[in-house]
Write a structure and sequence with these properties.
Elements: E1 5-10, H1 14-27, E2 31-36, H2 39-48, E3 53-56, H3 65-75, E4 81-85, H4 90-99, E5 103-106, H5 112-147, E6 151-155, E7 163-168, H6 170-174, H7 178-182, H8 188-192, H9 198-211, E8 215-222, E9 228-239, E10 245-254, H10 256-270, E11 275-279, E12 285-288, H11 290-296, H12 318-332, E13 337-344, E14 349-360, E15 366-375, H13 377-398, E16 404-407, E17 413-416, H14 418-421, H15 428-431, H16 444-458, E18 463-470, E19 476-487, E20 493-502, H17 504-548, H18 551-577, E21 585-588, H19 589-600, E22 607-610, E23 615-618, H20 620-637, E24 643-649, E25 652-657, H21 687-697, E26 700-706, E27 713-719
Parallel strand pairs: 1-2, 1-3, 3-4, 4-5, 22-24
Antiparallel strand pairs: 6-7, 6-10, 8-9, 9-10, 11-12, 11-15, 13-14, 14-15, 16-17, 16-20, 18-19, 19-20, 21-23, 24-25, 25-27, 26-27
Helix pairs in contact: 1-5, 2-3, 3-4, 17-18, 17-21, 18-19, 19-20, 20-21
Domain PAC: 215-267, 461-515
Modified residues (4-aspartylphosphate): 57
Organism: Halobellus clavatus
């Protein structure tokens, strides 16, 4: 209770009012009693003074106690008001109760009535203060709940988890109102918790209750609109005086986004053939990925907490341990360490391209080390095999066994090998003894040249040639060969060795390779152009981050780096498969636009709208690159507040902007690689060519028109 209780006693009899005040202050040292003989003035004092309780007579000239009570209740519904009157009747008492009187006491003779009145005042004020404290506590609790990112609940420990109370972001989290959950119209345990997680959630909660500890669990829920979300829940039991569980209370929050980031990290970390992990700056192992653990045949707990050089991978030799220690020391100083070493696995040793890379904070301090190892054992074996094959090739090349003949210095054929004879319809007897230029391998177009090559070789020169030989089936074979003189001790040519190899297939492949290289050169130009936007975003955001220190810019830069990775993967896939479009699916265009907008990083005043329900059958990565080029083109050529609209029409889908449009005279040239309306600028002129390449790869057509909804350009993409 407060240090004092301020009471205003209103009574039209001054002597009685003063007497009552004296007795009340004598009854309790807490009381500070003021008196007033006019009801209307009393109402004014109630409005102007900070009072804890009002005591009023009923029969007064200006207004009755009931009328005064009604006026007070209109403005101060919670102020304690005691009717202390000499006129007692059931009617007055009933009217007072109806008007909201706090207490009713009839005047009597004797001093005991003041003791009773003092007690009634203390009780009324204490009750009002308690109610006020409860309301304030409830208000604070409601404020806390309204600012908590999740829902707070009280439920029964029964199957289905019947909810008695639900507060907070129930609708935001699950899509259901608190009333729907509390009424049992929707069961949290049976309708909201994912069916595959219900049993596990029950078991984990019961296990925690058995141990008498709070429970923490992560599980999936299904929202009212069919979404699947991940949630984290923490709760505890509520027991009665006998220790029996009567309820559970807890908190549930949405962790879908953090779960998505966790899975992305796990996918990068564990779904790779490279060995990698995380180290403290002193080299202590924090984490090792599945590839590294599987190679060594060990569990995670066998290495976590140990120095890197004490891991099983480096047990094969002291040299390996020393290299690992040196790598950590180098990375501790902020430098990259890289070397090729041999490490120990469960069943084998392996050569690895080993590195340790430092990770620094904004102050440049090393906070983590990332060790990586790429198994290059097969590469080493291939290099060795290649060296052996080169030796074998040299031996075969220098040994007369492939398209090889022996000539006299005048060009007469002395011998020829069997493989050479397979190219013509002739036997050795038909060939030997004849001038080489008269043999069936040569047409009239080559005879003079062959005679000249023989003469040059006879003079001691090494002659290389390429020619087309007619074949037995009427075709022709392209060969590469040479005329090599065999000299005696004085350097005079005594024989000529002619050797040749069939390069028909190689020439065919070279022509095909040239064609494909030209195609991929064009594609590489497009990808290089497409990379400019996210790379520029990274540079710009990192500069802003350095200037402002705001992490939002670092996050935006990280998103742009993710887009660079996607474009890199797109390039690798295309180079591997030769296909720009590897597969299509039905795509909600609005979902792709979010990533496009992030990658392009347009001015804040720019805007894009997509007609609701616009869906396109396309390759997601290729479509995103196409839209990035279109949006980037609109941003580059349009005003800062450029507006973009995308939607479907009867023949396909369209893209419009509010920019300056494209001159009709330029529309036939706009998709030409290298063409740009901005002359002399580096790195331009590829965006629209990239758009056309992606359009054609999907089997579509693209047409340029004037805008229908906006004042700029309109691109219509239709099936061909």
């Amino acid at each position: 209770m407060a240090d004092s209780i301020r009471v205003l006693h209103i009574d039209d009899e001054p002597d009685f009012a003063s007497l009552t005040a004296d007795f009340l202050e004598r009854e309790s040292g807490y009381f500070d009693v003021e008196t007033e003989t006019h009801a209307t003035k009393g109402l004014e004092r109630i409005r102007s003074e900070d009072l804890d309780c009002v005591v009023s007579d009923h029969d007064m000239p200006s207004m009755t106690g009931i009328e005064l009570l009604e006026s007070v209740r209109d403005e101060y519904p919670d102020l304690p008001f005691i009717l202390f009157t000499g006129k007692g009747s059931e009617e007055v008492a009933s009217d007072a109760i109806s008007a909201g009187v706090t207490d009713y006491l009839q005047k009597e003779g004797g001093t005991e009535q003041y003791t009773l009145l003092a007690n009634r005042i203390e009780n009324a004020v204490e009750r009002q203060q308690s109610q006020r404290a409860v309301k304030e506590q409830k208000r604070r609790l409601e404020t806390i709940i309204s600012n908590v990112p999740g829902l707070i609940y009280r439920c029964r420990n029964e199957p289905g988890w019947p909810m008695d109370e639900v507060a907070g972001e129930c609708e935001e989290l699950a899509g259901y109102s608190p009333g729907t959950i509390e009424s049992g119209g929707v069961s949290w345990g049976e309708d909201v918790i994912h069916p595959d997680d219900q049993e596990e959630v029950w078991d984990e909660v019961q296990a925690a209750l058995q141990e008498g500890v709070p429970f923490e669990l992560t599980y999936r829920i299904e929202t009212a609109d069919g979404q699947t979300k991940w949630v984290w829940e923490r709760g505890r039991n509520v027991t009665d005086s006998d220790g029996e569980v009567i309820a559970l209370e807890g908190f549930i929050t949405d962790i879908t986004e953090s779960k998505r980031r966790e899975r992305r990290f796990e996918a990068i970390f564990n779904n790779t053939y490279q060995f990698t992990g995380l180290l403290k700056p002193d080299g202590t192992i924090i984490e090792a990925n599945e590839a590294a653990l599987s190679f060594a045949g060990i569990d995670r707990n066998e290495v976590v907490g140990k120095p890197l050089w004490e891991g099983k991978w480096f047990e094969s030799s002291q040299q390996a341990k020393d290299v690992a220690r040196e790598a950590v020391e180098t990375a501790q100083n902020g430098e990259l360490f890289r070397d090729e070493i041999k490490i120990q696995g469960a069943n084998e040793e392996a050569f690895v391209d080993f590195s340790v890379r430092p990770v620094t904070n904004d102050d440049g301090d090393v906070t983590l080390l990332i060790p990586e190892g790429r198994n290059i054992s097969e590469l080493k074996e291939r290099e060795q095999t290649l060296r052996e094959q080169e030796h074998q090739f040299e031996a075969i090349f220098n040994d007369p066994n492939l398209l090889v003949g022996l000539l006299d210095t005048d060009g007469t054929v002395e011998d020829i090998n069997e493989i050479a004879l397979e190219y013509v319809d002739a036997s050795r007897e038909d060939i030997v003894g004849n001038p080489f230029w008269e043999t069936p391998w040569w047409t009239d177009d080559y005879r003079a040249a062959v005679k000249q090559w023989v003469a040059e070789a006879a003079d001691g020169e090494y002659v290389e040639y390429e020619a087309d030989h007619p074949t037995e089936d009427g075709g022709k074979a392209t060969v590469e060969g040479n005329f090599r003189p065999v000299t005696d001790d004085d350097g005079t040519a005594s024989r000529i060795i002619v050797s040749a190899k069939d390069v028909t297939q190689r020439r065919r492949r070279e022509r095909e390779l040239k064609r494909r290289n030209e195609q991929f050169d064009e594609f590489a130009s497009f990808v290089s152009h497409d990379l400019q936007s996210p790379v520029s975003t990274v540079q710009g955001r990192l500069e802003l981050a350095l200037q402002t220190g705001e992490m939002e810019h670092v996050e935006k830069a990280a998103e742009a780096i993710d887009r660079v990775d996607e474009l890199r993967d797109d390039l690798v896939t295309t180079l591997r498969t030769g296909e720009i479009v590897s597969g299509t699916e039905r795509i909600e265009l609005e979902s792709v636009l979010d990533d496009v907008w992030t990658a392009v990083d347009p001015p804040q005043t720019a805007s894009v709208t997509v007609e609701e329900g616009t869906r396109i059958e396309a390759d997601t990565d290729a479509l995103q690159r196409m839209l990035e080029n279109l949006v980037g083109n609109s941003i580059e050529h349009g005003p800062d507040d450029v507006t973009i609209q995308i939607g479907e029409f009867e023949s396909g889908f369209y893209y419009e902007d509010s920019g300056p449009g494209i001159d009709p005279e330029l529309r036939d040239r706009i998709f030409t690689p290298g063409f740009s309306t901005k002359n002399g600028e580096e790195g331009i002129g590829m965006g629209m060519a990239s758009v056309r390449q992606i359009v054609l790869a999907h089997g579509w057509e693209i047409h340029i028109k004037g805008g229908k909804h906006l004042d700029g350009v309109r691109f219509e993409i239709t099936d061909s």
